[in-house]
Amino acid sequence: MKTEVINIKDLTEAQAAVARAHSVLGKGGLVAFPTETVYGLAANADLPQAIELLREIKERPDEKPFTLHIGNRAVLDMYVPDLSLVNRQFLRKVWPGPLTAVFMLGVSQMERIKGTFSEQRRKALFHNNSIGIRLPDDQVSQMMLTTFPSPVVAPSANRAGQDPPVNAEDVLEQLDGKIDLVLNCGTTRYAQASTIVKLEGDSMQVLRRGVLDEEMLRRMRSVTILFVCTGNTCRSPMAEGLCRRKLAEKLSCLVDQLDGKMYKIVSAGVMAFSGSPATPEAVQACRELGVDITGHHSKILTLDLVNQADYIFVMDRPHYQAVLSLNPMAESRTALLGGDQSVSDPIGMQVDGYRKCVQIIKKYVDERVEKLFH
User: What is the pLDDT of residue 319?
Assistant: First the structure.
């Protein structure tokens, strides 16, 4: 067999190359393709002969699976149903990117998989209730993966024991005449392998070091919820306290254990004076609901707080505009806590006014937390 090489320099060439790759994959052939890390070797997971050929080239036994490669996050739920909030947010931050995630699936998740996929597809993708998935940050690979009708699995495009290839020349040196097609996009961006992590529940274990270091990954693991009001002494600290309790209930843990569960709940004010306590009325209204905010100290809303937050809930439209004035790119993460309703400021009211306000905030916070978990 003569290995075909297609050089890709622009979008038109990429589209033609992807069409050719689809033809090869559809017939059970193997395609070497670029990612941002190393070149991969793609096979059609629905064709047993393609998987067998891939195992032969990689000298890989049946019990060692190949990694599923996907072109966008939208298809992830097909392969990993009921993904936790922590993992969803983590993958939103890191994908597309140089990370391979090995998901350990529970009994209920595997039952859903069995009802969705054929035996051949399950055998090709899953092993011991686990599946490895990668979403490359590369335009050509995403085009190929997104538009191909079957799942695509891919190890690195090298022989067992050899260095992973970072350009088409490296691929051909090892596999010329043994595979059908090479999509040549030059040297890969990082020229090193992806990091591999195991995700089991909300825990993460680094299985192989790569482009992303462990400290960077652990920072991206946390889910940060930010509440914003004006002075950060009434509405937003009440929302923060109520959110902590609601999350603890959802996660079956103590409020003090939320950080260990990778959840960070904070609040800030667009016109706050740093270090002020919550108002006595806010403290009392929360205490009557079993929520303690006596340790609160106000802080001013900053760009860093906005950038670190996964979800930003504001009390009214001016707060929304204040967030976007710091970072317009935060729009997709920012919303009024009450949907299309503002939460009026109780500052200056008697405690009864705060009681009414905290009940409104509690209703909205409960709704938001429930929505996050579905």
Answer: 99
The tokens describing 280, both together, are: 């006595």
Q: Which residues are catalytic?
A: 229, 235, 345
Amino acid in the structure at residue 136: P
* Spans in the chain with pLDDT lower than 50: none
Q: Quote the pLDDT of residue 157.
A: 98
Sheet holding 311-314, edge to edge: 263-269, 223-229, 311-314, 334-336
CATH for 4-219 is 3.90.870.10
Instruction: Tell me the C-alpha distance between 85 and 310, whole Å.
Output: 11
Q: How far apart are CA 330 and CA 236, in angstroms?
A: 18
> 247: part of which helix (H) or strand (E)?
helix 235-251
94-123 pLDDT, tens digit per residue, is 999 999 999 999 999 999 999 999 998 999
Q: What is the pLDDT of residue 62?
A: 86
Of 188, 69, 197, nearest to 134 by C-alpha is 69
Nearest to 345 by CA among 291, 271, 277: 271
Q: What is the spatial order of strands in the sheet that 152-153 belongs to?
A: 4-7, 181-184, 31-33, 40-44, 152-153, 68-69, 130-134, 99-104, 195-200, 203-208
CATH 3.90.870.10, the chain: domain bounds: 4-219
Residues of CATH 3.40.50.2300 domain(s) within the chain?
222-372
Assigned CATH for 222-372 = 3.40.50.2300
H helix and E strand count, the chain: 14, 14
**Structure confidence at residue 218 (pLDDT):** 87
State residue 127's pLDDT score: 94
pLDDT at 374: 77
| Burial (0-12, 13-18, 19+ Cβ within 10 Å), 127 | middle
